[in-house]
Amino acid sequence: MIIQIGNMPTLEKPAPERDEFYSPHLPVQISKLVAKSKSIELSGVKSFPLTGVECYEIKVLTKGRTYLLYINTETFLLEYWNGREDEDQSILSRLYDYKRIDGLLIPMSDCLMKNGIVYFSSKTRKYLINPNIDPAIFNYKGG
Q1: What's the per-residue H, E or C state across the chain?
Q2: Model pTM score
């Protein structure tokens, strides 16, 4: 993974080997999760009163870890998910503000909640998919 932030030098960060769900890009996360799953089960419909949505609850089991995906019953977009190692059901990630970028619907905003209380949120301003990258940026001679 390549990270570029402001005027910082470009960083190349390898993904951890043990975490099959690692990627900052949601389509990649879900694709890897489904490909490596041992089982996928539709558990029913769950209501989320704070946002007023109903979602299909989907349990995905991989390597002894259970992920919960919540797909909006009207838009069929991923609305929430829980992928914690300790399987703490009180912690959810919420994904919203979807934008179409190069044919993909990508959430531009997300937040982490514990028992419905937001403790972290972020908003992405721009995604570049497969941009041309000048190889010279990897020759940073910072000081």
Answers
A1: CEECCCCCCCEECCCCCCCCCCCCCHHHHHHHHHHCCCEEEEEEEEEECCCCEEEEEEEEEECCEEEEEEEECCCCCEEEEECCCCCCCCEEEEEEEEEEECCEEEEEEEEEEECCEEEEEEECCCCCCCCCCCHHHHCCCCC
A2: 0.72
